[in-house]
Predict the structure.
Amino acid sequence: MEWLMYILLGFLVICAIAVSFSKNLLNSLLIFMSYSLVMSMVWIFLESPDLAITEAAVGAGVTSVLFFVTLKKIHAIDEKREGKKDEQIKR
């Protein structure tokens, strides 16, 4: 069981580094969500279920929804613009 904890801690480090080097805001948000979910699993292995539930609800749930809404409001996520970028890349 200890090896699983080391794998999760390694994944946390990889997520933290990846979110800082990511250029796309949506990708950064998805990496942040996965970081929060893995952190909640770490809290479960540390036998702290109250912190695990809080991390999953607040970290991966509420905060991510607020980030999605903010990115949508500032037009960082726009389906039409994303489609145009894909078309320009194909040409």
